[in-house]
Design goal:
The protein is mostly helical and 224 residues long. The protein has helices at residues 2-29, 32-39, 43-49, 53-63, 77-94, 96-106, 116-135, 145-167, 172-183, 190-195, 202-223. The chain folds into 2 domains: 2-63, Orthogonal Bundle (Arc Repressor Mutant, subunit A), CATH 1.10.10; 67-223, Orthogonal Bundle (Tetracycline Repressor, domain 2). Helices cover 74% and strands 0% of the residues. The radius of gyration is 19 Å and the shape is globular.
């Protein structure tokens, strides 16, 4: 059991180091030597968990998908979509792994690296919520959920990229709030639109709610 815990910690240390190096240098320029130096582990320990730089990058790309921090369910599925977007913006500001994953997914110099995973996962999650919203009568008649999911994901990618260049993500909540205020009137029915919380602080609120729910679930599991 102790060995398993150590292995998990070592793997996370290596991933965190890789995230920092990838964020600072990009995929192409990053080296295994830099990651080893940052992680403070042996080459053998690294290769026990990851077979190559590509394997490390795929681990970082997967690192932003923390299912424990999913937005809590809401009666309005459009609000749940808003919460998912704002939560991701908050984590992008505060979590190095998420920032590195986003940089990798948008790194056009990362030749040979399959960067499609995060985009496909986010589109699929958005599609699922949009279909539920459609079933509940929250969407305008012309909306095609698969198209709207891709538009939301693509628009967010552009907005976060602009925020990173202009302000190092400091203005990201404001930009994402503006994006949703422009986008959602073409998606949601007026009654739903009027009830949405699109405030800049929404991401931090949802993060706190998700963290509390995850802690309660873990506590219940430990007691059970």
């Amino acid at each position: 059991m102790a060995e398993q815990v150590r292995a998990i910690r070592t793997r996370q240390t290596i991933l965190s180091a890789a995230a920092k190096v990838f964020e600072e240098h990009g995929y192409q320029a990053a080296t295994i030597s830099q990651i080893l130096s940052e992680a403070g582990v042996t080459k053998g320990a690294l290769y026990f968990h990851f077979q190559s730089k590509e394997d490390l990058a795929l681990g970082v790309l997967a690192g932003q998908q923390d299912e424990r921090l999913a937005p809590p369910p809401r009666a309005s599925k459009v609000q749940e979509i808003v919460d998912a977007v704002m939560l991701h913006a908050h984590r992008l500001q505060t979590n190095p792994m998420v920032r590195a994953s986003v940089r990798l997914s948008l790194d056009q110099q990362a030749q040979g690296l399959d960067r499609s995973g995060p985009f496909l996962q986010w589109s699929q999650a958005g599609l699922h919520l949009l279909q539920k919203a459609q079933e509940q009568g929250e969407l305008l008649p012309h909306v095609v959920p698969s198209e709207t999911a891709d538009v939301i994901v693509g628009s967010f990618a552009g907005v976060q990229s602009m925020s990173q260049v202009v302000s190092d993500y400091r203005d990201l909540p404001s930009r994402v709030s503006s994006l949703l205020r422009h986008l959602l009137p073409s998606v949601a029915v007026p009654s739903v639109l009027a009830s949405l919380d699109l405030s800049e602080g929404r991401g931090a609120t949802v993060y706190a709610d998700a963290l509390k729910a995850a802690e309660e679930q873990e506590l219940a599991g430990a007691v059970g």
